[in-house]
Design brief:
alpha/beta, 2 domains, 4-stranded parallel beta sheet, 4-stranded antiparallel beta sheet, single chain, 24% strand, 4 helices
């Protein structure tokens, strides 16, 4: 307000994914409460799906979001510019022409950057899944057994990893781990197999390796 600015605002509505947003029963009251606030202008409503709970966008919940937009407009005597119903999980709904006309705003990230829709992680037509190369330093390269030795319990993350015994193999320890990336989502470019990761390092058995790259 001191700067003379007005913030255009999209109110997020929780349609069942339980990640963020006001519950639909309360959205009208929230919209009304925003009306007298200086410095804020209600420009639209949105929802985030297929994130925390995996609830996918459907024609039904997109229609419901559109109906909520109409209810807000009638209750507050305004016209909403944006109804933001989609992220990358809604690409199938959009491509099949099943999206209600009122949905006019999409937040597409993974579909552009990684070339996938996010309900089944399928490749999206006409896109690449290897647009990014992640390069990391090999900090240790030694021949070790391929199977574990000794009495075992859980690993550092509560899991119980189990690998087939192929005798002694060359292990490359790479300085990237679960604190940096979802290691299950990267694929080695060089002839190696990613077998696991700790917080800050990833283990890759390989025939020979001097540096290591992954594609996403």
């Amino acid at each position: 307000m001191r700067q003379g600015r007005v913030h255009d605002t999209i109110v997020m509505v929780d349609l069942g994914d339980l990640r963020e947003g006001v519950w639909p029963d309360h959205v009208i009251d929230l919209a009304k409460a925003m009306m007298p606030l200086a410095g804020i202008k209600l420009k639209g409503i949105g929802t985030n799906l297929a994130c925390f709970g995996g609830t996918v966008p459907t024609r039904n919940n997109m229609r419901y979001l559109s109906e909520l937009a109409g209810e807000i407009e009638r209750a507050c005597a305004l016209s909403l510019e944006w109804v933001a119903g989609l992220n990358s999980s809604g690409l199938i709904l959009l491509s099949e022409g099943r999206l209600p006309a009122r949905i006019n705003y999409a937040r597409i990230g993974e579909g552009i950057l990684l070339g996938r829709e996010t309900t089944r992680r399928n490749a999206w037509p006409g896109t690449y899944q290897d647009a990014f190369v992640l390069q990391a330093e090999v900090v240790e390269l030694k021949k070790k057994p391929s199977a574990f030795n000794g009495e075992r319990g859980e690993d550092a993350f509560g899991g119980h990893p189990n690998f087939e015994n192929h005798g002694d193999i060359l292990h490359a320890l790479v300085n990237i781990g679960r604190q940096d990336v979802n290691v299950e989502g990267i694929t080695p470019v060089e002839p190696a197999a990613l077998v696991g990761a700790s917080s800050s390092a990833t283990s890759c058995p390989s025939i020979s390796i001097t540096q290591h790259c992954w594609r996403r």
